[in-house]
């Protein structure tokens, strides 16, 4: 379901992985290569330094440089959204200012975590960032399994009523909540965040997706969307089954490390995830290789 708000963001976005050298430094050359390869695959946008990009394991300076590298390689061909969320408001403001000045299409923010902040405090965090960066457009990042905070049409009403909040990335299994937000806030871009629920999310109000396995398998997501829009539901469901098989295998292996290894299989060595993530076992690598057989 596509509404008229922000059509430039109603796309198939890759939640961009970040290649690393063996010493855990960022491999910017490989990053540029996988951005280019994904555009060739049909990826319609990039989401930088989110969960898939190990955003909270990166320094602020690395997050800025990764965004700059991505924007430079993209060169205006597709939109780039910068995830700038972290626990300290001043750091989020710093990253948001940089993202806006660098040319990101929008920013996205997880709520502050760990201390079990009240909803009033969480709302204040978002408002402080928006007030500090004039003209900023932001996307809420709803990922309760990581943050402990579940946004809904009710508890996020003050934020979703703010025109500077243009949408929400809904990485939650609660599709009822997604549908309720779509009805209550039809001017917001509702973005699916679970690859394995893409087709279901489309039926409940989402118009686009930001996905981890989109890094490697963008054409399948494009097929799901196009078949859904054409009303060819059985065929769309078959493509969703294919996505879910890949997700199942990669989650069992270790999803973020599996994406990097998938690119290694495809010919671009992306290294491993930063510690404390563990390297893939040989058994896990073999299971990922089978997805490309």
TrEMBL record:
Record-linked Gene3D superfamilies: Aldolase class I (3.20.20.70)
Annotated pyruvate binding sites: 210
The entry's keywords: Lyase, Schiff base
Lyase found in the keyword field: yes
InterPro entries in the cross-refs: Aldolase_TIM, DapA-like, Schiff_base-form_aldolases_AS
Record: active site: 141, 169
MF terms in GO: N-acetylneuraminate lyase activity
Pfam families registered for this protein in UniProt: DHDPS
GO biological process, one term: N-acetylneuraminate catabolic process
Source superkingdom: Bacteria
Name of protein: N-acetylneuraminate lyase
Organism, scientific name: Oscillibacter hominis
